[in-house]
Specification:
By secondary structure, the chain is α+β, with helices and mostly antiparallel strands. The chain has one helix and five strands; from the N terminus they run E-E-H-E-E-E. A hairpin with a 5-residue loop joins strand 1 and strand 2. The two termini are 18 Å apart. It comes from Agromyces terreus.
């Protein structure tokens, strides 16, 4: 599934592919916004870790349907 995160005062969004379910990501974001968490930690399907400040979140877009890829993937 694809995750796109908008960060306040940043013209670009952070986009990555995750192996987590949409419900897991939604619960993680909701828990961070409701609590006193300083940052959110996401791990993409390649193992890259992303740390995003919870206070700087503008939006989180979660798409559960994977699109069919065309072409070569390295």
């Amino acid at each position: 599934m694809d995750v796109r995160i908008g960060i306040q005062n940043s013209p670009r969004e952070l986009g990555f592919e995750s192996s987590q379910s949409p419900e897991e990501v939604k619960a993680q974001v909701a828990a961070a916004l409701a609590g006193d968490a300083k940052s959110l930690e996401f791990v993409d399907s390649k193992g890259t870790v992303f740390l995003v400040p919870a206070a700087a979140l503008a939006y989180v877009e979660i798409s559960g349907v994977e699109a069919r890829r065309v072409g070569f993937v390295a």
